[in-house]
Amino acid sequence: MINEFKVKGKELLKKIEELIHEGNIRRIIIKDDKGRTFIEIPVSIGVIGAVCAPIFAAVGALAGMAANFTIEVIKKEEHQNTVDAEIIDEEHF
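Now predict its structure.
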């Protein structure tokens, strides 16, 4: 599933932090208003704490470069997680 958000430069970092903390995000792509990709952030369960600091620094610097951004968010497939859980449950019976 892919979602897009339009944000102003000053709102960029806050929105990225919110998305990362949601926990069901696989990848975040930040684009300018012409559709050019500035940065792609792979997000996994292990991306927390100190690992996020350089990402937030890069996004903060990027926010000062342009006025408008599109954040493309690729979410983890809920169906895939459900199928995996069903397979695990079947193995125990």
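Confidence is low (pLDDT under 50) at residues 81-93.
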